[in-house]
Amino acid sequence: MAILEVVLAALFLARHAAAECPPGQLECAHSSQCVFTHYLCDGGDDCPDGSDESEDLCQAWWEGDNMCGKGYVTCKNWDGTACYNIPYYCDQPHPPCESDLDMRICEVIKSGKLQPLSDNTGEISQVNFEVVEALSDLFFSQVNATFSHPACPVPYTLLAGRCISIFFPAKVDWGAARAFCNVVGGDLLTLQHHEDFHTLVTHLQETNMVSDFWLGGFLRNETVGWTWLDETPVELGTPFWALRHTEECQKRNMTINGNITLHVNEGQCYHYTQAPRSPPLGYCLALTYGNYFYMSDELCLEKRSPLCVAAA
Helices marked H in 155-291 — which ranges? Predict the structure, then answer.
């Protein structure tokens, strides 16, 4: 029960990126005007281009002759039938039940801009209860594998001899992530040994984690360089840091006898540079799924999950 309470509390930390229009409104297809979602398909041209009354969008918005009415989803589950507001339904990472909603309308809502559904040619995921159950099972297996261990307090598990909290349900900025770790009796994780890094990444992969995580490293200034929270330097290069593609010609150098610098391989151009970038992309250290959980310099105000270590 304690684990579940911590998980539910974390959900209050989740924040959404700001859209072009205020919450509850969508931008018209061919103008910057915004229209409230509850004015969609009401028979009036709230958008000068009429995009709020396009035929296929309104057919999905009414969802046929459903019992819930305009702008609502008729949801079917084992308890019977329920009604959900379409924007709320589309905002859920895993929809709460099956429905006949044309999921292309969710793509329109997520984009924040009105367009005919026929313009959306991307692959549309269909919701079925088997998928929902599988995702539920995966979530609880991830919680059990990351939030508890007999040798550690909740919400920590034991990895490489340390109690570590892989708090994937929450996504906050770096400062809030550190504050969260402090609240649960720890601090953001530091990775100073190759073995610890390998153990952590292996665990993230084995538990099917797809979140991005904050680490306890930052760049205070270019003179001091990248440091961990205990002021020790962050080791740069392989095997810790991710690669980034660049269109620029990157020649690599080597230093001999401490004072002679030469281009290597006849000054060949390389189009990959290893993070952290100079100047840095961001001043806080993260492990991101997109970079296969290698370290990268990220903007400190972006939203990622706390990766905590319990105080010794």
Answer: 174-183, 194-206
Q: Which fold has domain 149-241+276-310?
A: Mannose-Binding Protein A; Chain A (3.10.100)
What's the predicted TM-score (pTM) here? Answer: 0.57
Assess contact for 289 and 162: CB atoms under 8 A.
Answer: no
My answer on whether omega of the bond before 279 falls inside 30° of 0, hence cis, is: yes
Written as one letter, the residue type at 142 is Q
Instruction: Choose among 272, 261, 285: nearest CA to 177.
Output: 285
Residues of the chain with CATH 3.10.100.10: 149-241+276-310
Q: Convert the pLDDT of each residue in 120-179 to its tens digit.
A: 655 444 455 676 677 778 888 888 888 888 999 999 999 989 999 999 988 999 999 999
- Across the chain, which distance is largest between two alpha carbons, in Å? 80
Closest CA relative to residue 275, chosen from 290, 259, 256: 290
